[in-house]
Automatic annotation (TrEMBL):
Residues 97-232 form the DUF4232 domain. This is DUF4232 domain-containing protein. The keyword Isomerase does not apply. It comes from the Bacteria. Pfam families: DUF4232 (PF14016).
């Protein structure tokens, strides 16, 4: 079955606030590695498709700064994520991953029973270990101006596990989206599908977000519950 990759190069850093809502299609989409930023308050313009850097934006508007992000993380077998134990572990002393430390990507996987699954990955592109724990925020933006459309993803039962990422290591979560197609699919008129620009992703415990461009994506513009996301796990 068609596999769609929306690769996102840690791009947009957004301002405070909004959780997230995402969208999906059942058709294959070409992976896009982008640098992007969108503002929660709807003021920042979405970035262009080109480039590999990160664009930072305040909650009120346009881009204010940029930091580079690696577009070619190492595939070395030593680049693995470790699961941290609760309480007392040295992993607890590792700093939480910031948006400037991460590159994110969303890859469409299998479809089942009216749903589409996406593998959401976070890669540590910094030179130091960092820690992820809990649920990422997931939503969709549209209109070319960084505005969120529809409801943010609900949390799934799978809470994930605390994960320490050494440089170039990857952690992942799973986004499940109702397969809304062009007409709302099983949600019908309660969805009100619109063309979307891509995913807005908040790493766990972050108030700034990354943007993943996704060409041809549809999203529910109404407040229908059509997205869920799991907690973060270390890569297997």
């Amino acid at each position: 079955m068609a596999r769609s990759t929306a690769a996102l190069c840690a791009v947009g850093v957004l301002g405070l606030g909004a959780a997230a809502c995402g969208s999906s299609t059942d058709t294959g989409e070409t992976a896009a590695t982008t640098t992007a930023a969108a503002s929660d308050s709807g003021g920042a313009a979405l970035p262009s498709d080109g480039g590999g850097g990160s664009v930072a934006s305040d909650s009120g508007g346009g881009a204010t700064g940029a930091s580079s992000a690696s577009s070619n993380p190492s595939s070395s077998p030593s680049a693995t994520a470790s699961s941290s134990s609760s309480g007392g572990s040295s992993d607890d002393e590792v700093a939480t991953c910031d948006v400037g430390d991460l590159q994110a990507a969303a890859t469409q996987g299998d479809s089942s029973a009216g749903h589409v699954h996406y593998d959401l990955t976070f890669t540590n592109t910094s030179d130091d270990p960092c820690r992820l724990s809990g649920f990422p925020g997931v939503s969709v933006v549209a209109g070319g101006d960084g505005k969120q459309v529809g409801a943010a993803a609900e949390h799934a039962d799978d809470k994930g596990e605390p994960t320490v990422l050494i440089p170039h290591a990857t952690a992942h979560a799973t986004i499940e989206a109702v397969n809304i197609g062009d007409d709302g699919g099983p949600l019908g008129d309660s969805c009100k599908p619109v063309d979307a620009d891509g995913w807005r992703i908040y790493p766990p415990d972050s108030t700034k977000a990354l943007f993943i461009r996704a060409e041809g994506m549809k999203a529910c513009s109404a407040d229908a519950d059509w997205l869920t996301v799991t907690g973060v796990h270390p890569a297997s």
